[in-house]
């Protein structure tokens, strides 16, 4: 099946009240793990490339790996740029074959974020590439953050409304209390804010920094309109823990396949669990 853009998947997710897993890939084994897990669960899936992954593997290698992985698969797969940094990078990814892009102007002023995102939408839409954008700041958010601090960092619902009206994006990533990487404590999500944003923008909402977020919180976020859930850290952790376990068990092992093979299987298990949690298992045929 050829790559699909994420709008098609998100529309179906919206109709059914579930979310699609967007899993970050960094190497061949993780690309294979994402596809194997999605096939085993008969789920649509998004494979995404972060800035770190592009730097590590190169855009050409990532695209080629994913193109190879989707050959012969019957599940819908999207290849998505994660946290795109510039208009030029978006164009490079579209030319390379990506079916979806994120432009992350969340560090810019609202006006500049709107202008950049709008330009990306105008370029991507005519070639059937979907666009995700971000409003608000993710980060190391402490448990005892004050209401004022929350308001300064988290996505403002009224600004979100204006943002989607003026840009025409397909999906909006929001800041509601998640952070990238490992959490020190348990993240507390601002569900009333999510509900308000969703009621105003009426678009699929994207949750970044979803590794380590408790299952109940993920379920509630999906109930309130999150339709794309991004997972990176949980996969990396499972992968590297398994590498460590194998090498502890067999310190003289010199065959990378015997180390990376089990790590790939560990990644498959984590991804399958996420797919079931997000409710996308069995939904491949609905796209
Ligand atoms: O864009 C990618 C994600 O937001 C991944 O976040 O590493 O906390 O799972 P995570
Ligand atoms: Zn992210």
Question: Could you characterize what this model shows?
Answer:
By secondary structure, the protein is α/β, with parallel strands linked by helices. It has helices at residues 6-16, 28-41, 51-57, 59-70, 87-96, 110-124, 147-153, 157-167, 191-201, 215-223, 233-249, 256-278; strands at 20-24, 45-49, 77-84, 100-103, 130-135, 171-174, 205-207, 226-231. It has one domain (6-286): Aldolase class I (TIM Barrel, Alpha-Beta Barrel), CATH 3.20.20.70. α5 links the parallel β3 (77-84) and β4 (100-103). α6 runs parallel beside α8. Glyceraldehyde-3-phosphate is lined by residues 24, 82-83, 180-181, 208-211, 230-234.
Subunit arrangement of the protein = single chain
What ligand species are in this complex? glyceraldehyde-3-phosphate, zinc ion
Compute the CA-based radius of gyration: 18 Å
Strand order in the largest sheet: 1-2-3-4-5-6-7-8
Provide the residue-averaged pLDDT. Answer: 95
